[in-house]
Write a structure and sequence with these properties.
Layout lengths: L7 E3 L6 E6 L4 H6 L3 H9 L9 E4 L8 E5 L11 H4 L5 E5 L7 H7 L16 E5 L5 H19 L7 H15 L2 E6 L3 H4 L1 H7 L9 E7 L6 E6 L1 E5 L8 H4 L7 H15 L5 E11 L11 E3 L5 E3 L7 H14 L4 E6 L3 H7 L5 E3 L3 H14 L4 E2 L17 E2 L8 H10 L7 E6 L3 E2 L9 E2 L4 H11 L4
Parallel strand pairs: 1-6, 2-4, 2-5, 5-6, 9-11, 9-14, 10-11, 13-17, 14-18, 15-16
Antiparallel strand pairs: 3-4, 7-8, 8-11, 12-13, 15-18, 19-20
Length: about 450
């Protein structure tokens, strides 16, 4: 992984090229106060002060150049100078005005490359100097967590199955002195029957499992993080078309998010008793695959009529949420690449948030807005609970008609969460279909930084 710690350094007056970040509203005033050589350069580039305008500005000597960027991003945005972090030559840089602040994160992430299958560029490090060294370590941790999510999601399913996901959790546990517990294969059949049913058709070296990590003082408040770990999703016997299967390596994106979030919690040593749960499966096709019309038992004791084998994520999460609730946590957060309906409703950039806890919703939405890591609350509309009715079982996993698909999926999950436990469900896409500054096309983290900020605030050390 990129050595982010070398790319954000304390400003001790080292030689560095200046970066001028000018808001379009300040363009005319800024330009009027520049020396003639700068105004001449701006005119030669035909810059008008619109967002995205940029140029290399000459200084008084050949090495004395600076960079101009016209940007209408808020000063609190991590993406304010991210486009420069990816495009400037190797060297040291500092902002001409104002603190680095959140922009340091975008600067770091702009230089991250997924290099498992192809070498990265040969450009050397671009180091940003900051006059706020106290925030360097946390910025680096956030960059590493985000890059970890990206790398996991970008990895092909042939190289990242349930076994490899377990290895990632094992390495995380060992780094922080946590305890790893794994229930695999046929051992799931009695305790976690839905996880077993979904994953039973996979090859023996990709057998399903429930991965658990526990960390922290048992006397501290207990929180649970649950992440969907479908390492590849064929759709099962309700098979996806090839176009729908193309990106299904990313169906473990929820697991990637909670691994990264758990890492942030442990690195910050928050005073919590952390329980991380990842049901890891491959939804495959074979003679022993679970079938449409099968009635599945659950850890909670409910029965589920399986109306669609491609609605498997909510099944494995149901058993994992039940297990999480048995230990009476005061908070459960789950992340899952759960429904296409969420993408239809809100697009790829805006994950829907579901919770019955208004205070928790306010905290998450507020943190998302402050950190430019947004989400949007959708309702757990009680009237739609009837859409989950089955003629032969306690419920179905996928109602007919497709109405309110993201909501009914969340309502399904809610049935496996204790009523007195604060719970939030985030239906994340985990994928960026088009590149943006600091955010390349491919796997990405959504609502990760906001969720961590909420945990930091709720469980701050005295």
């Amino acid at each position: 992984m990129t050595d982010f710690a070398t790319l954000l350094q304390p400003d001790r007056g080292q030689p560095a090229h200046l970066i001028h970040v000018v808001h379009p509203d300040r363009w005319a005033d800024w330009l009027a106060h520049q020396p003639q050589r700068i105004r001449t350069t701006v005119a030669a580039h035909r810059l008008t002060g619109k967002p995205g305008d940029r140029a290399v500005l000459p200084g008084e000597s050949p090495d004395d150049w600076s960079m101009l960027l016209v940007c209408n991003e808020a000063v609190t945005s991590p993406w304010r100078i991210a486009s420069l972090g990816a495009g400037l030559p190797e060297g040291h840089y500092r902002l001409a005005e104002g603190p680095v602040g959140a922009a340091g994160l975008g600067w770091l992430l702009a230089q991250h490359r997924f290099t498992r299958y192809a070498a990265g560029g040969d450009v050397g490090p671009r180091v940003l100097l900051t006059d706020d060294p106290a925030h360097i370590d946390e910025t680096v941790r956030l960059a590493k967590a985000t890059a970890w999510v990206r790398d996991l999601v970008n990895t092909g399913a042939g190289d990242l199955g349930p076994e490899q996901l377990e290895a990632e959790a094992d390495a995380l546990a060992k780094r922080h002195g946590a305890t790893l517990t794994v229930t695999r294969g046929d051992a799931l059949a009695t305790g976690y029957p839905m996880i077993h049913a979904v994953g039973q058709a996979a090859a023996r070296d990709r057998q399903p499992r429930l991965i658990e990590v526990e960390w922290g003082n048992p006397s501290h408040p207990r929180i649970a993080l649950v992440g969907k770990g479908v390492c590849f999703d064929t759709g099962g016997l309700d098979i996806k078309p090839s176009a729908g299967m193309r990106l299904m390596k990313k169906d473990m994106g929820g697991a990637a998010h909670v691994l990264a979030l758990a890492g942030l919690v442990m690195e910050a040593r928050l005073p919590v008793r952390l329980h991380l749960l990842i049901p890891a499966v491959e939804n495959s096709i074979a003679g022993n695959a679970f079938r449409p019309g099968d009635v599945l038992r659950t850890r909670k004791g409910l029965t589920v009529e399986n109306t669609n084998t491609d609605a498997e994520g909510r099944l494995i999460l149901g058993d994992a949420l039940t297990k999480a609730g048995e230990d009476q946590p005061e908070l459960i957060l789950d992340f899952a690449t759960l429904t296409g309906a969420a993408r239809v409703a809100l697009g790829p950039d805006l994950p829907p948030l579901f919770t019955d806890d208004d205070a928790l919703a306010a905290d998450l939405l507020g943190a998302g807005e402050q950190l430019h890591d947004p989400m949007w609350r959708l309702p757990l509309w009680n009237a739609y609970d009837e859409l989950l009715k089955s003629d032969i079982a306690d419920m179905v996993n996928a109602p007919e008609g497709g109405f309110a698909g993201a909501i009914t999926a969340a309502l399904f999950l809610r049935r496996f969460v204790p009523k007195d436990t604060a719970w939030a469900h985030l239906d994340v896409f985990a994928w960026r279909p088009t590149a943006k500054a600091g955010r390349p096309k491919g796997g990405d983290a959504y609502a990760l930084r906001a969720a961590f900020a909420v945990l930091q605030k709720r469980y701050a050390r005295p």
